[in-house]
C-alpha cells in the first residue's frame, strides 16, 4: 500500500498546525485509497518516525514524504535527510522517498500568485 506523509516544521503555537490539518483532511477526501499522516520536524507531534510507524502499522509498504516548506533551507538540507535516513534504516521493509519542498513546484507558486491576484 502507498501512503504519504505531509512534513512540516512545527511551531509552539498549536494554531500554526491548523492549515496542515486541513491539508490532510483534503487529501483524505480526495485520495481515500492512500493514507496520509502529518509529521513535524520539531515542537509538534507526531515526529517523522512516529508517522512512519503509524502508516507501517496500517500496512504501508511505500511512503512518500512531502516537505511542506517553501524552499530547501537548512532544515531540509541538513536535518531532514538525517531523519529520513534514520527511518529508512529502522524500517527497511518500507520504501521511503521524499519529494522536493512544495514551494519549489511551479504549480504551487502559481497557486500563490493566483491567490494574490484574487486579493486585488
Automatic annotation (TrEMBL):
The keyword DNA damage does not apply. SUPFAM superfamilies: Chelatase (SSF53800). InterPro entries: CbiX-like (IPR002762), Sirohydro_Cobaltochel/CbiX (IPR050963). Coiled coil: none annotated. Gene3D superfamilies: 3.40.50.1400. It comes from the Bacteria. The keyword Metal-binding applies. CDD domains: CbiX_SirB_N. Keywords: Lyase, Metal-binding. PANTHER family: SIROHYDROCHLORIN FERROCHELATASE, CHLOROPLASTIC. This is Cobalamin biosynthesis protein CbiX. It comes from Polynucleobacter paneuropaeus.
Amino acid at each position: 500500500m502507498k501512503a504519504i506523509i505531509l512534513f512540516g516544521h512545527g511551531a509552539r503555537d498549536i494554531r500554526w498546525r491548523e492549515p496542515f490539518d486541513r491539508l490532510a483532511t483534503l487529501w483524505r477526501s480526495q485520495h481515500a485509497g492512500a493514507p496520509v499522516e502529518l509529521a513535524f520536524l520539531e515542537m509538534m507531534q507526531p515526529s517523522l518516525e512516529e508517522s512512519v510507524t503509524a502508516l507501517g502499522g496500517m500496512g504501508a509498504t511505500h511512503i512518500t514524504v512531502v516537505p511542506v516548506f517553501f524552499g530547501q533551507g537548512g532544515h531540509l538540507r541538513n536535518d531532514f535527510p538525517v531523519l529520513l535516513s534514520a527511518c529508512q534504516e529502522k524500517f527497511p521493509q518500507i520504501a521511503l522517498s521524499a519529494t522536493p519542498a512544495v514551494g519549489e513546484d511551479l504549480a504551487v507558486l502559481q497557486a500563490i500568485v493566483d491567490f494574490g491576484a484574487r486579493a486585488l
